[in-house]
Automatic annotation (TrEMBL):
Boundaries of every Periplasmic binding protein domain copy: 54-310
Protein name: Substrate-binding domain-containing protein
Alphabetically ordered keywords of this record: Signal
Upper lineage: Bacteria, Bacillati, Actinomycetota, Actinomycetes, Kitasatosporales
UniProt cross-references to Pfam families, sorted A to Z: Peripla_BP_4 (PF13407)
Amino acid sequence: MSALTSRRGLLFGTAAVSAGALLAGCTSNEPKSGKPATSDQPAADDKPGKPVTIGFAGPQADHGWLNAINENAKNRAKQYSDVTLEITEGSNDTATQIGQIETLINKKVDVLVILPADGKALTQVGLKAMRAGIPVVNLDRIFNTPQAYRCWIGGDNYGMGLNAGHYIGQKLKDKPEARVVELAGLDNLELTKQRTQGFDDALKNYPNIKKVARQAAEFTVESGQAKMAQLLQAQKKFDAVWNHDDDQGVGALRAIEQAGRDDFLMVGGAGALSAFQAIKQDNSVLKATVLYPPTMAASAIDLARALGQGRGVGGLAEYEIPASITLYSAVVDKNNVDQYMSTGFR
């Protein structure tokens, strides 16, 4: 995958900030200054156990969400006195990332956490680790076969669209002939198709609402501004817009402000700090965002530690950790934004 396409791959209500709650019982393409926010939830079980060395391999942190992934992993590992974290520099070049993972395999780490730049391309190295007796926690972008990982944990792209659609649907359910538009991400990515499908499926529950336009952007501020400007020019009146990504949403909000429009509501996606701040200030069209939480990396460390210590996770009756965990895509609006503020990424 190229740097541009190596993107990460919520019904209503408040969900746990990360899968860490269970264990306890989709950004700009340019680096930004400031410390990425991470989960402030306590570690699931900080009572020391068997020492575990966890190898962590992710792609290059060339935008906010991936940088937050790395920070969540590192900060979670620091909470455990029995965990040693071996973290690679990360790369969007698949050959380089494969080499980094092979180095971790040769070091005989106890467990691997891998967020592949390209799940398909890195499947073989996942298989290699598993065959070497090193369990793999596959983070977000999934390998081609379950044989390449012991556990998968990641976000819910379909759920993002579904919950965005239901949120908008509830806001517009009493408005006759309501019109909505969609500012999607890269159309060549499966995750974009899943987000659109979820959104469309949700809108089927609201016969008074019609989606009248859709533009695909590129998950960048610049593309968000350009594509939103096109939507505003083509659609003189609509009631809501769902934007797949909070970073391209920064550009979208610029275009909306430049056009002098405030006659609709906007729902974002992912959970950027800038979106949370705008929602809290409540002085723009942005009223909510649906999460794709980078705190999944902290939960991946919890799972890797449990694997290395040969135990399950609290809150479940089984002796083993699950084979897969799909995180809930919570809707964040002014009613619950304070709860999630610390997890917003820059």
